[in-house]
Structures are given as C-alpha cells and as structure tokens.
Amino acid sequence: MAPNPYTFIVIFVGVALVFPLIPLALAWLWRRLFQPPKPGTEKNAIYECGVESIGEAQIQFRSQYYLYAIIFLIFDVEAIFLVPFAVAFTGLPVGAFVAILVFLLLLIEGLVWAWGKGCLQWER
Amino acid sequence: MSEQIDEALRRELQRQGVWVTSMQELYNWGRKNSIWPLQFGLACCAIEMIATAASRYDIARFGGEVFRPSPRQADLMIVAGTVTKKMAPQIVRLYNQMPDPKYVISMGACAISGGPFKEGYNVLKGIDRYIPVDVYIPGCPPRPEALLHAFMELQRKIDSQKLTGADKAEHLDPAEPSEFPVPAFGKHDLEPPANRDVFHPPNIERT
C-alpha cells in the first residue's frame, strides 16, 4: 500500500518543530540547573552602543519641515546637473548653454516664488 | 583533565571506539571553540586585531572569527588599544551588557597600563581598574601571533573552569557580580579612579 502523499509533509513539519525545540529546551534546562540569571539595569538597557541614551525616544518633527525638504531636494538635483555643466563649460554649443540657463531660471523662479510665499520663514 | 574518569581506562575505551566525556568537558569544549569577540577596536592594536581576524593569521582556526557588533552576542571583549578616560565608561557599559560567561583580553601596553601614554592626563592607566581582565598581552602593539597566543591561553582557562564545587566558574556563581559600576566624569578624573573590588595592583616591595 502506497503511503499517503501528505505523510512526508507531516514528517517534515514534525522535524521542523523538534529540531529548533531541542536546543531551546536544552538551553532552558541549562539555565535552570547550572547558570543563575544575572539581570541588571545596564545589561537590560535598550541601547547597546555603550553610550547612555539622552532624552525621550518619541521625538516629533514639525510638518512644516516638509517645505524645506522639498526646496532642498530641488537644489540638490540642480547641483547634479550643474557639475557636468561646469566641467564641459568651455566646449558647450550655444544651444546647450541657453538650455541650462532656462533650467536655472526656472529653478530660481521657483525659489523666488517660494520666498515670496514666505516658505523660508520659520514659524514657531 | 577529568577527575571522574581514569585516564588509562578512557584511552583504552577510545581505542575501542567509545568516547567517554563529562558534561563539564563537553560544555567547556563547546565554549572554548566558539568564542565570539566583540567587534571593538580603540587604537593601533585594533589594526593588529583586524590582521588576526583576516586570512593571513586567521583566528577562525580557533573558532573566534565571528566578531559581533553587539555586546549582547559577544563572549569576549578584546580591549585593543589606548583607553582614554572619555572612552572608559563606554567600555565598562559595553562589558556590562555582555551576557555571561564573558571574558576580557587586555591587548597591548596601553590597555594594560596606559603604555607610552601613562603620563597623559586623559589616558586610563589600564582597563583592569574597572573590569576584570583574564589575559594580558604586552606589546606595542602586540603581533597577531601574540593575540592568538592570548586566545589560546583563554581557551585553556575556559577548559579548566569547573561546573560545580566551591571553585566553579564565576558566571555560575550567583554571588559573583555580572555588572561593574560605570565610572563617571569627575572634575579632574574619573570617579572613582579605580574600582577597588576589581583592581588589585601588584604590591611592589622596595628594600
């Protein structure tokens, strides 16, 4: 009689359970029989970098910060375009030069607009 | 090695293919061959420690290649380098956070005594002022062979530790502390300047 095809899955599940449980049980037994637990404030501290934690863990950022993040992102990307532009500056054709100037003007216009809207004012 | 088994009988049994051991030997054999050091370097000795871990000297041959970045997973602290007074509390705190059993190798002249910077105002004159040290390695810096030797000495120590009895290993004794007080920054020096329960300087008799 052929064994049920699911027999092997049951065997595998059994092995998968017993295999990690044996060392865990041995460790538990070892602790019970030989090694006394020695907890302490330092040992149970949350951080393990050696430096004591300062202040609370629940810091909140103001949502206003996102405006700065967006403006920073724009100029961060601009820098990536400006570096190759500066490197290849002497060999650039007029069309490319005008194109990058338009790109710069658009960004500066955005900055002026943001400035005019008062986005750079930090409101408390 | 073992007091319970007659060595001659044991050899005879081994010849017949029967291996007799005790729990203590098995425990110590497992521990000494998988010492996980804390990945923690302070100064130029750390470069030698890195060389010891790398392929040329290969501390993996002794079972110590798993350098752990977290004290919670480490068995051995290799104090590799100059311990400044600014760094000493952090070292003691990391040592406290290591689970038992834990061991310390004081690597190099600086970690032993302050070394060439002993006169310095900001250098701790030996990490054994705050935490118990198992093996000291002299040298400035010690060669990787010296660290391997210290590692083997530590393995020898682990192998000789008792599981039961009055002289059993410290980590099995509930009365032995697992944490040591962290020194604080004082006005001029660390406070206290040394942990008197741990620090037993040699008493030099002058005639």
List keywords for this structure.
heterodimer, A: 124 residues, mainly alpha, 3 helices, elongated, B: 207 residues, alpha/beta, 3-stranded parallel beta sheet, two-stranded antiparallel sheet, 6 helices, 5 strands, 29% helix, 8% strand, globular
Helical proportion of chain A, percent range: 55-70%
Overall strand count of chain A: 0
- Net shape of chain A: elongated
Sheet of most strands of chain B? 3 strands, parallel
Which class best fits the helix and strand makeup of chain B?
alpha/beta
Beta-strand level of the residues of chain B, as a percent range?
A: 5-15%
Distance between termini of chain B? 42 Å
Order of neighbouring strands in the sheet with most strands of chain B: 1-2-3
Beta-strand portion of chain A reads under 5%
Could you characterize what this model shows?
The complex is a heterodimer of chains A (124) and B (207). In chain A, helix 2 packs antiparallel against helix 3. The N and C termini of chain A lie far apart (81 Å). Chain A is built from three helices and no strands. Chain A is elongated, with a radius of gyration of 32 Å. With 124 residues, chain A is mostly helical. The longest helix of chain A has 27 residues. In chain B, strands 1-2-3 form a three-stranded parallel beta sheet. In chain B, helix 4 links the parallel strand 1 and strand 2. The mean pLDDT of chain B is 89. In chain B, helix 2 runs antiparallel to helix 6 and helix 3 packs across helix 6. Chain B has 207 residues and is α/β, with parallel strands linked by helices. At the A-B interface, loops of A face helix 4 of B.
